[in-house]
Design brief:
Elements lengths: L1 H10 L3 H37 L3 H25 L3 H6 L3 H13 L3 H14 L1 H12 L1 H31 L5
């Protein structure tokens, strides 16, 4: 649905806009897939240590993965020429890993909400509303805006997880 709506909005600005947004999206998705791959390696480590009551190790696995993912995203942001995407690309890893942390530990409601933020809750309104004011640039900005808002909404979830599950639980 998100891709269809993005293309419907881009087509209003011509074939060149559709082509440019499609190419930019492919580069962005490539980096996102790298981050997801790191997260898929992180999930079993976090899940195993958390269930073994080694919660600090699960937390360390989260931060190590976040550091590696953020460095990777920052390097990719420097290498790419997608101005709007590059601004928020370094934030992508942390928000992705917060979602994966909740997912691998069985917190279904929070994980589903966080997963819905990026392509649904924030993206769809952004891709429909931003072009009204910013035209083609609004279409280009819609995914980075959704990613920024997803990062912002992920931070309270991360703080709550730390407060309730890591701090105060001695190994």
């Amino acid at each position: 649905v998100a891709s269809a709506v993005l293309n419907m909005q881009a087509v209003l600005y011509g074939d060149a806009a559709v082509s440019a947004i499609t190419i930019a999206n492919k580069l962005y998705v490539f980096v996102r897939n790298l981050v997801i791959g790191i997260g898929q390696g992180f999930q079993p480590v976090a899940g195993y240590n958390y269930s073994a009551r080694k919660r600090r190790r699960a937390w360390q696995a989260f931060w190590f993965s976040s550091l590696v993912g953020t460095v990777l995203c920052t390097v990719c942001a420097i290498a790419e020429t997608l101005c709007f995407s590059c601004i928020v690309l370094p934030l992508l890893a942390v928000s992705t890993f917060v979602n994966q942390l909740y997912q691998c530990l069985g917190y279904r409601t929070a994980a589903t909400f966080l997963a819905s933020c990026r392509q649904g809750i924030f993206f769809l309104p952004a891709v429909l509303l931003l072009p009204l004011w910013l035209h083609c640039a609004g279409v280009e900005m819609s995914q980075p805006v959704a990613d920024l808002l997803t990062f912002v909404i992920s931070m309270p979830f991360l703080a709550a997880f730390y407060r309730h599950h890591i701090r105060g639980h001695a190994e």
